[in-house]
Amino acid sequence: LKESTRQLQKTVGVNCLLFLSKYAHMMLADDSESNESKVKDLFNAGTAVINLLMHLKTVHSKSKNYVTLLDNMCTLLCKVTALKEAAFLAVDSWGVFNALTIFLPSPLSGMLQEEEEKLEKAVKKYDVDYMKTTTTSNNNELMTNFNMEEKTSSEIKAYKIGLHNLPASYFELLASLCKVDQAKSVCLTDGYLRRALEKLAIIYSLLHAANYQPYQLNNWQQMKGEVVACLKLIVACANHTSVQKGSANDLILSRFFHVEDMCQGIIIARNDIP
Predict the structure, then answer these.
(1) Does the global pTM surpass 0.85?
(2) What would the DSSP string read from start to end of the chain?
């Protein structure tokens, strides 16, 4: 296909996702019995989007619209899984976690627990680069800004860029799926909850560096949405305990994350612009 044709396909695809998302929002706002069948028609859209997610990273990872496409797909799935029935089907039958796991940066264990000191040094460098970056699509620019001679490993840098590319809607979707206990267990054992905690820790470090004055951060509106989404997932998983999987609170209240301090810092942050 010609480049112009491929661009047309992408534009049409994004607009279809936006339309379906707004349509789903409208349908879910109408709780009449006659509307139930129309809402269930959205289930087909959900399965189709999950199939697209399975191939998104392979086909579009180098595209500047990659994060936008991921955001739009997750937003639509958030609308569809607002119904508990749909959330259950997404987890049990549609293979939503098979698609979402593709976007998790490696390693599964995360970085804070295993390399806390190295990560703290990386955060100090990343703070500057993150504030210089106004969109989530400047991956190459962001990678170039890293000092490759710093003592932290390239693995940590790649991991943090991977976190940077996970939009707020990704965590909103995970929180929506957590209407189902099985999803909570998956979020705990497969690294989704840990990614939310680590992304929150990174943003908190930026807020702390700005003396809790978020208006000093160029892209605070974007980061604020990410903070809310991460907290939603943390709240959705809190108090979940499984004999086989363990307790979510053990991770949330781990000494590596300082969740209480982060929440206090977010609360005291001044949102007014002088």
Answers:
(1) no
(2) --HHHHHHHHHHHHHHHHHHHHHHHHHHH---GGGHHHHHHHHHHHHHHHHHHHHHHHHHTTSTTHHHHHHHHHHHHHHHTTSHHHHHHHHHTS-HHHHHGGGSPSPTT-STTTSHHHHHHHHHHHHHHHHH--STT-HHHHHHHS-TTSSS-HHHHHHHHHHHTS-HHHHHHHHHHTTSHHHHHHHHHSSHHHHHHHHHHHHHHHHHHTTT-GGGSTTHHHHHHHHHHHHHHHHHHTT-EETTTEEHHHHHT-TTT-HHHHHHHHHH------
